Amino acid sequence: MDRFRITGGKPLEGTVRISGAKNAALPTMAAALLTAEPVHLKNIPRVRDIITMGQLIAHTNARVETPDVPPTDLTIEARNITDAEAPYELVRTMRASILMLGPLVARLGHARVSLPGGCAIGARPVDLHIKALEQMGAEISTEHGYVTAHVPGGRLHGAEIRFEKITVTGTENILMAASLAEGETHLESAAREPEVTDLIEVLIKMGARIEGAGTSTLVVRGVERLGGASHTIIPDRIEAGTFVVAGAISGGEIEVTNCKPEHIRAVLAKLCEMGVDIEAAGPDRLRVRGAKKLTAIHVTTEEYPGFATDMQAQVMALATQAQGSSEFVETIFENRYMHASEMTRMGADITIDGRKAVVRGPTPLEGTTVIASDLRASASLVLAGLIARGETIVDRVYHIDRGYERIEEKLSRLGARIERLR
Ligand code: UD1
Fold it and tell me: Which one in 26, 38, 41, 306 has a CA-CA gap of 20 to 30 Å to 328?
C-alpha cells in the first residue's frame, strides 16, 4: 500500500493547475449511457474513481475510449448496452457507482446495482434515490446487497418529487432518469451544486429538456431519445480549495490556476476571515499568501452555496494554527471527524462532541505516522504534514488517489518535500 513521506516546514511557492472535477465527471460519464451516440468529454481528472467509473461503464458493454493513458479526454459510446449490472467488485470502493442506476433503468427498463461502499463517513443510504425512481414507475427491491430495479412497460414516467433531504447524486440520478422518461418530472429541494449544473449542461447538449439549472426546483420534460455531445468538465472546486489551504498553511505564496473561484466563495470567505490573503489574479486564478497570524473561525457545513463538507477537514488542519477556539459543525455527514484524532496525535488540540468539533490553537504539529481514513481526511493530513516538525508518514493514500490527481507531484512542484513510498 502506498504511503507519503512528508518533511514539513517548507513554505510553498509557484503555480498549480487545477484538474477537472471528479464529482462532475462521474455523473457526466454515467449520462453517456442514456444515448447510443458517442459522448466526448474533456478535462477528465486522472484519478482512481474515474477509472472505476470507466470499468463500470465498460461492464455494460459500452465502449470507453481514452486517447491517452491515463485519460484527460474520454469518449463513451453506449451503442449496444447488453449488461445492466454494476457488480460489487467495482462498486465497493466508490459510492458514486449508484449513478449507474438512473441511466440504466431509464435506457433499458431494468438494472441491478450493488449497494455502494466508498468513504466511511457515515451511513450514507440511497433510500432517496430509490424512492424517487419508484415514484417514476420502477419496481425496486434490495436483496443480497444489490438494488434491483424493473420498469413494467419498459419506460419510466414523470413524477412530482420532493427530496426530504438535499442529495447531490440523488438529484443527478433522477435528472438522468427523467430525461428519458415519459412526461414531465418536477424536482423540489434539488441540489444546486456546480457539479449538478454541469451535468444539466451536458444533458441539454444531448437533447434533454431541463429548466431551473442552478436552482432547487428543476423541471424535466422527458424525450424519447437523446443524442451525442461534446463537453469540457468544470474545474475541481475541492482540489482548488485544498491547494488554497496548502498555500495558506505553509506560509508561502502560490497561484492556483484553472479554477472557478465563484464555486468556493463560502470557503474563500472563511479563509479570508481567518486572515489568509487571497486575491483574484484573473478570472480563473487565485493568489494566496499565508498570514503571519491566523484567527479562529466558526464553520458550519452546508449544501451549496454554503461551506462544502468536502472542505471541512482541510480547513480544520489550518485552524490548528489559528489563535483561539475554532468551532466546526458538520451538518451533512454524521461521522466526518476521523482526521481529528490523527491530527491530535500530531499535537493538535481538538475536542469532538457529536457533530461539533472545537479546535484550540495555535499548536505546533509534530510528524508521525497517520492513517488516512477517507478521501478528504487524507488531504487534511497531508496539509498538516506540510507544517509538522520532522517527518510525517501518511498511510493508505489510496483514499487520496481516488479523488486527487497526483497530489504529491503537484505539491512537489510547489517546493513541498513529499514523496510516494511504494
Ligand atoms: C456528494 C459528493 C460528496 C459530497 C456530498 C455532499 C459526489 C460523487 N460525491 O455525495 O463528495 O461530500 O455530495 O456534498 O458527488 N442521504 C440520505 N439518503 C439518500 C441520499 C443521501 O439520507 O438516499 C443523506 C446522506 O447520508 C447525507 C446527505 O443526505 O447525510 C447528503 O448526501 P448526498 O448529497 O447524497 O451525498 P453524495 O451524493 O453521496
Answer: 26
